[in-house]
Amino acid sequence: MPAPKMLAGLPKPVLFGLYGAVGGLLGALAFGELVWWALAPQVAAKPAPEPRLALSAAKELQVYQGGTNKLFVKILREDFDGEVAVRVDGLPAGVTAPDVKVPAGKTEVEIEVRAAYSAVAPTASLRVIASGPGGKPVSEPAEVKLATLPSPMPQADIIFVLDVTASMSEQIRGLQNGIGTFADDLSRAKVDARFGCVAFRDLFHREPAGWQQMEVLKFKGETFTSDARAFGDEVGKQVASGGDDFPETSFEALAEAAKFTDWRKSATRVLVLITDAAPKIEAQPPQGMSVKDTVGVLAENKIDQLHLVINQFGRTNYREVQQGVLGVGKDKGKEFSLDRTARNAKAFTDTLLPEMTTAIVTAAEAKRPTSEPELAKKPDAPPGVKGVQSDATYDRSAAGQLVLAVGVWTGAIAGLVCLFLVGGQHHYLRGALPSAGGALAGLAGGLLVGVAGGAAGQGLFLLADTDSKVLDALFRVMGWTILGALAGLGLSLFVPNLKRAYGLAGGAAGGAAGAVGYLVVSAFATAFLGRLAGGLVLGLFIGLMVAVVEAAFRRAWLEVRYGPRETVTVNLGAEPVKIGGDARACTVWARGAADVALRYFLRDGQVICTDVPARSEAPVSDGDTREVGKVTVVVRTGTSSAPVAPAPRPAPPPLPKLAKPQAAPAPAKPLSLDDDLPAFDAAPVAKPQAAAPKPPAPPVAKPQAASTARDPDACPSCGRKNPGRPGSRFCMMCDQTY
Fold first, then answer.
1. Number of structural domains found in the chain
2. For 473-513, how does the pLDDT look when each residue is reduced to its tens digit (9 = 90+)?
3. Is there a domain that residue 377 lies in?
4. CA angle at 175 for the pair 261 and 188, rounded to the nearest 5°
5. Contact by Cβ (8 Å): 268, 156
6. What is the extent of the structural domain holding 516?
């Protein structure tokens, strides 16, 4: 019986994988953890992480006397996420900056730096300091170079884009008369303003003779003027006429104004559109510039403000342009009622001027820091080492103890794995558990290879000494692979005709799979569960892979059938596979058979079968089937995988033919491989017939008489010549070494 009844139908790789898994789990749980607890070095104390903080700020900042500017600070936390206090040290007289706090979860803050009119220090070096938990400052404050500049008048270049069609006469007069008041108010607000104007009608409609469809007003040959009177005079020359088809080319006029080439570099660029008509794109069919194209032109020429003096016609399109250039909610463009400004020319200054003054006077925001905060290099952690099957860190001085602990731990697991696999192999072939000596040999062998493999794997892991998670995992796998390879090598000693290299390869594959199992489980659970999973998977895959390798590389094997669902396979090779009723002397136990009934082995690429009771041998081919006691033995060579029905046993030969050699006075051939009788029938028939007459021992006398002439390489008992060196020759006829 190859296995317990509930497992008898399982394929051999699965069966042996289960044996190994049970052994590995029990080894890890019952012995491995006990050994690890007793021998593992003390875990190195891990210091509590210290909160750290870094910051960066703009390298340079300018502020005008009587003005303000914004200093942007960016921070980076490590091992905490609480509130951070930021302050500015080194401020010169007359310059102030409040202390601010960065709330938990935020990484940026802005500090308003204000300079009084009395501030006179041209340059100063500021230090921006951030304080973390407990008020501890950051190790490296940010250095900022501050320049205090004389207060200049803010500059504004303002272009009025004015509709001069027939319905706009009141707006033309309002701009002409109100520009003086507008300029005076800007001057009182210390705004250096210049004015320009683009007058437009309809580029696609024929206008009255003598009137231009679009005109850029000139002031002594220039497009801008700071002389409000000159500006009003030129605007007053415009005559409201034309525009009969109502939609006007106002987008084209905005684009023309944006393309002025003489904008001042530091001036705020302002466009003021004054019209009572929709843009031409609402015509049928559309003729003018699109919203998208208009936005593109204004954005390309860096227009800062767009104010709309309009009514309900085209409002949606104009708002799209305004928001497309300036963005929603940025408050850099306003909308005013055209009807309101038409009734009161002073409305230009009463409504537009306060909004423009606020936007112009406000200093431009400082640029945000271009560099990201960087934490100072972390101090090196105390030197430590890790175990190949543990995620803890140990003191480097305990490396030798760690190697010993890991070696004994793996030895405990490998010992139980080998014990279960050797016991399973014995039960698989013989139907009984191994003797105490055999079990002890399997346990001791597994323990030795486990200690050697575990120590070698841990030593390799220590030599790697890397902080890379990828390399860490790689060397763990390599360490477990060494363990599995040595366990597979030891197991090959107990599997008939399994080459050592194949056992080594199968065990290595099992060890690597065990390492992967440990890494996967320990990534989601504790190292303890990872070690248990590793022991289980290690045993599972060693048993599985050794059985798979055994089946994958065999050239010939035996199928031994105990019943319809119980079949074992045994590899054939140079080592004879014995089948018989003596479980201690045979490889495969066959109930009811002779102590050693059949012997199979490979010679010169052929499967040789020896009928031991009959003392005969002959080559057999794939499918050869024989009944031995209660089992059926079928030869498989890989040339045919189809099962072969058991061949009927030949009928016994007639008795006279057997009596003929007994009647001879000097029988020349007592038993020979050249005999005409079938080799497998000679022994069963000859043995009972020879018992009655009891012939006078010629078979014994003949070898003794011929001893003087026998070849020295021949068997001393039967005279059969066997290959090999003296002392290591094996006679399969006599089952002895000479």
1. 6
2. 777 787 778 777 877 777 676 666 677 787 788 778 877 87
3. no
4. 80
5. yes
6. 12-44+392-552
